[in-house]
Structure formats: C-alpha cells, structure tokens
Amino acid sequence: xxxxxxxxxxxxxxxxxxxxxxxxxxxxxxxxxxxxxxxxxxxxxxxxxxxxxxxxxxxxxxxxxxxxxxxxxxxxxxxxxxxxxxxxxxxxxxxxxxxxxxxxxxxxxxxxxxxxxxxxxxxxxxxxxxxxxxxxxxxxxxxxxxxxxxxxxxxxxxxxxxxxxxxxxxxxxxxxxxxxxxxxxxxxxxxxxxxxxxxxxxxxxxx
Length: 207
Hints:
Number of helices: 6
Largest sheet: 5 strands, mixed
Distance between the termini: 22 Å
Radius of gyration: 18 Å
Number of domains: 2
Strand content: 15-25%
Strand order of the largest sheet: 2-4-5-7-6
CATH topology of the largest domain: Heat Shock Protein 90
CATH superfamily of the largest domain: Histidine kinase-like ATPase, C-terminal domain
CATH architecture of the largest domain: 2-Layer Sandwich
CATH class of the largest domain: Alpha Beta
C-alpha cells in the first residue's frame, strides 16, 4: 500500500466514523427524552441505552485506530481521560478487562498504534482475559493475560514482515484482522520497533 493509498484509506475511515457518531448519539438522546417524559424505564430501555453507548464508544475507538492521525510531528494530543472513557464503554459487560495506565496525554499517532496493539492482543484472548496498557519511560507496553493464548501464526507473522507488500495477490488477510497489517505501518512511520513475546497465558507487545 502506497503512502497515498494509506492516507486515503484513513480519511475514509475518519469520514465514516464522523457520519455514524451523530445518529448513534441521537438514539442516546432520544432515550433520555423518553425518560424525562415519564416513560417507565425497564430492562429493554437499559439494554438499548447500553448498546448505544457501546456503539458510540466503538466508533470513537475506530476513529482513533483507523482514522487519519494527521502529521506525525503534529502537536495534536489525545487526553488520557478520553481514552479511559472510550475503553470502559467499548468493553463494558464483556469478557475482556482493559485498563489504560497511561496518565499523560499522548500524540494521536501513538494512541493510534496503542489501540491497534490492543486489538491484536484481544485477538489472542478469545476466551477473555485482561489487557493492560502502560508507558515506561518512552516505551509502550501492552500486556495481555488469559487462561490460554490463541496465537494464529499467519496473523502474528504480519507484525514482523515488510508491510510494503502486504496487499499483493499472494497475501490474504481478513477484515477482522486488519490491525495486524496496519500496526507495523504506523510504527514504521513513528520510527519504532515492535517486540512480541508470549507464554501460554501472557502476551507482551512492546514498542
């Protein structure tokens, strides 16, 4: 994928997320208006409200992970509180516990890489578990823990290969695994190297 193609794809991702967030937000606002009008609040309303909040958070997640992050030397940062809020709503009530331990606001590009790494770790924790994101000095550490890791070699090999040929006809990757192809690209632009270590129950992605 050329730099132009990658830029265009990220702009398309940003546009889609931008257009979807408004109607999802309207559902949440509509539920609040129903409650104010005196409509009894039952489990079905709670379910719709929770689903709408989760959908809105996931769109925000995808906007940061797949959307355009601008120039790498930009001073645009993402606030830590925003990421914590997004993650709490994306993974609420699920089998995965994700904890963001990075207190500092970070650049949009770094956050993009971290969120893609979370998605890679999540793919290895199909039975559920926990993912902890921390920053030691200037190194990002994404730690995944679960009862048993499920690492598909063909996917994890993407993280170690030259991504300039990732979309040639002899290489296939499913849409659900696109994060494995995108993470090395953004890390290459950031000048960072990815290290992956794993045991039966623990996974570390460091960059």
